[in-house]
Amino acid sequence: MTSFLASTPVPRDLPLPLPLPEGVLIVLLVIFFLAHILFVNLMVGGSVLVTFFEWLGRKDPRWDRLAAAIGRTITVNKSLAVVLGIGPLLCINLVYTLQWYSANALTGHAWLMIVPLVTVAFLLTYLHKYKWESWSAGAWKTAHQLVGLAGTLLLLFVPLIFLANVNLMHFPGEWDKVRGFFSSLSIGNVLPRFLHFIAASLAFTGLFLAGWFGRAAHDIGTTPGFTRPELRRLFYKVAAYVTLAQYVLGPLLLFTLPSAGITTRLYVIIFSGAAVGLLTLWLLFRELRAPDARIGGSYVWICLLFGVVVLGMGSGRQIYRQAALAPHQAEIKERTARYAAALADFNQNLSVQVPLEQTAEQLFINCAACHAPNVRLVGPPLTEIAQIYAGNPDGIVAWARAPGKKRPELPQMPAFAHLGDNNLRKLAELMLEKGKAAK
Amino acid sequence: MDFPSFYLDHLAGGRLIIGIIASLHVLINHPLAVGAYPLLTWMEWWAHKNNRPDVDRLAYKITFIVFIVTTTVGAMTGVGIWLSTSLFAPFAIGSLLRVFFWGWFMEWLVFISEVGLILWWFLTWKKADTPEKKRRHIKIGLALSIMSWLTMALIVAVLGFMMRPGEWNQTRAFWDAMTNPLYAPQLGFRTFIALMMGAVFVWFAAFFFTKPKAGFAQQARRLRGWVVYRMSHVVLVSLLGTYLFGTWYWNNVPETMKANSSVALLTQEFMSWHGQFQTLLGWTILAFAAIGFGGLGTSFMIPRWALLIPSIMGIWLLGHFERAREFMRKPWVIGEYMYSNGVHKDELAFLQSEGLLKHATYARHREVTEATKVECGKDVFMLACSRCHSTTGLNGVIEKFTAMYGADKPWDSSGMALFIKGMHQTRTFMPPFPGNDKEAEALVAYIQQVRATREPLPGAQSAGIVVAPQPATPPMTAATPSPISAP
Q1: β-strand partners of B396
Q2: Which of B425, B441, B480 is the mutation pick for testing A, counting most A CBs within 10 A?
């Protein structure tokens, strides 16, 4: 095993127990992650749709109104996306401490850039939302669209940083090839992951908006030019066709996955998920053909089935991770245990040993960095000290306990009271001796 | 440390970035979230009770600013503390997370509710158009104020916990932090200074929304007068709280700190901090008192720019207050458990005897030889020094040795190696050198080379990692395996 993993770093784990059993943390990780990614999807997918519809709106104002109405949901979803991101971050930090932090460090510049990039993206999103009415004509409208586009592009880019980290953590054997964020993109299959994520974002946003604008409480006056069934149909269509595309992007992701974590279990879960997905699609397309009066009738069922698909994909993702990292985790565990045993052994022997009283020569290490026999290093040479304190070792002791500042050109000496008077006295005598000898 | 070393050569290893992000977070969180939410809720309530829609509108406009700032820069700097510490000190944050999981988990739940409430409160403000809806809306603001305060109360416990050496080791328990004698005064101090700064913020922001326009000059003046008069009351009352809790903290801190630190130099540094804190507290209170009393008289006595003075003083005081955590921790990152370079207290002697490189994961060589000396020194620097020091940049080792040995003379290598091995005795804020003699010499050789060439040192984020060659046999113990069974 060691031979093919020769370039794989096997770090030592932190010598502290996990606060919860690993299995519990993994379940929490999957659940918290899905809650987080749901809102991330709505934020990213919503931004893309807003940008697109606002562009359509230059010809037909009803698209502009629709874009504005979608825009109002994004500022809420984006805040929830951020705050719900903490939970999965806590869990992944705990369960995959070494792989996760290592991936962060290897893509460090990009990882740190998440903070300013997301801040700017959010500020642009607010600007876009609150200037919709006042920047509505001519060059101002173009500026408004550009603000929206800039925010959207940032929101599309940031997930790539996270995906690069999530991907990189799976392949410790490749870490030594990484030279920063962009080079990490060539490891594993970041791009298929990214495409799959973008498609999921659009599909989810479509499903969400079909419910949001289809709900009874929606003030249809804010989206003029569309009837409720039209809106339902429009967003159902987005969800349906993008989900259909996932049947190309999904296999692309699956078959480009490095074989490290591929197991039968993974295939069973992913293909079961895909089968439920087909059922969902069938329901969706049936809804699309339904007359105006009935469209939306299966909404709850579609959402539930989608939930099952997502749970399947989320668990599949975790199962791949577990299988891919199992050998690395085992090696880490072994190395950690070996190190802990060696350390315990060493400390055991150490505590058996009777601490010896330090000799003056050993203690002199404390002084030698600054005081040389003949030359001035940081402090005066020993010859000079021997001259000043000739026959007065206690003078040195008193000085070392609480040094003052005599020479303006030299830094002040730190106090050495912690060595104890006994040791200081021994040192003082040695210094006088050495100083005399050096003359 | 056993993680790839993210490192920024010019910024003291880059740790400064954590400081900047964290300070920005506190400076937004305290005045805006903890301070302003309750004041704005109170304004909304007062406007409803006294039928003053102009006050309600003003509260809404100010809330808009608070909403934008807290949900962008505020939220992202909060997340940024996580993201940056995972880069610079993964060993510390990873360890703290394992012990302190429940604290952070609760903090997360409170934080979710805080974000949910601010969204709910701000976005439904205009929809609360009947008295019943308005009353419910005010309750949301109240819940939000409580949650914001609770977030702070929990995180202060986390911070207190990191400063509690000794007990952490024995119990490793969350609730110990709550019994920290500094907890209550610290929380009270933060609460009142947040209210004080929040009030000045509301007051300052109100100037921009109460500009006397033609035809409405009378109303605008009335509204401005209303805000200034009330907010100066808040300033004066919170000022008393800030003074009382600040003094309590000031009086309590030496006992706790002295008990925690046995080191004279640290105490010296601390005493100077302590004195400065008192002076700064005094001047800040004076500055706030001046505008507080000024606001009571006539609302136009205090010009807009004058409000910036106490605000800046408050920021300064808060920053100074936060600095305490930094130096009180030294040389530990977790008191009596882990040094600031990630070396555990109990592995120090082991590493000094066996060598740091022997057990490192990311190093070029396992043993120092004459041929590999400088390369080994570079790895030792990265492992043992780079969490706080740069090479030639901020807080650089070159700068430190120049101060000791001079800029124009050659430096004595054996003297430097001796100094490195004993520096924790004289520079008590420094962790002990966690390697063997050869590694100390290698480090010196590397420093000498940096001095001569001023070559930059790239971190793992740009230069990547080198995985140490596997030892032929598993690393053995220094001493013969002891047959001693468990005690």
Answers
A1: B390
A2: B425
